[in-house]
Amino acid sequence: MKNLVLLVVLAISTAAFSNTGNMRTKIDNSQAINIQGEFQQKPMTEAQKLKVIRKKLEKQNELLVKKKIEMMRYQQEVMLMKKMQKVFNDQMKKIENL
């Protein structure tokens, strides 16, 4: 039983190491460098362009939502401040009239 487990573990580890060896030998030719050593990027596909535009729009939308929430919060604070000021002034007038 012990030998069988050892044999299975050995087989699995051998298979794992043989797969990693193939990954190391692959060469990625997707990005080219010309003779002068300048990096030349492939033109973006339509899907990549849409992805970039979508991310940009999501950021803009997030900023707009944050600004809108902040503006609403500020307006509510101003309204609350005016309400509190009115109540305070009314109380002061009552105190003065006594």
Polypeptide structure, described:
The structure is a single chain. The chain has 98 residues and is mainly α. The protein has a domain of 54 residues. It contains 2 helices and 2 strands, in the order αββα. A hairpin with a 5-residue loop joins β1 and β2. The radius of gyration is 34 Å and the shape is elongated. The mean pLDDT is 81.
Question: Notable features of this structure?
Answer:
two-stranded antiparallel ribbon, 2 strands, 2 helices, mainly alpha, single chain, 98 residues
Instruction: Describe the sheet with the most strands.
Output: 2 strands, antiparallel
The residue ranges in which pLDDT falls below 50 over 5 or more consecutive positions are none
Order of helices and strands: HEEH
Class inferred from helices and paired strands: mainly alpha
State the shape.
elongated
Rg is: 34 Å
Span between N and C termini?
A: 99 Å
Give the averaged pLDDT, no decimals.
81
How many E-type strands?
2
Share of helical residues: over 70%
Task: Give me the side-by-side strand order of the main sheet.
Answer: 1-2
Beta-strand fraction estimate: under 5%
Give the number of helices. Answer: 2
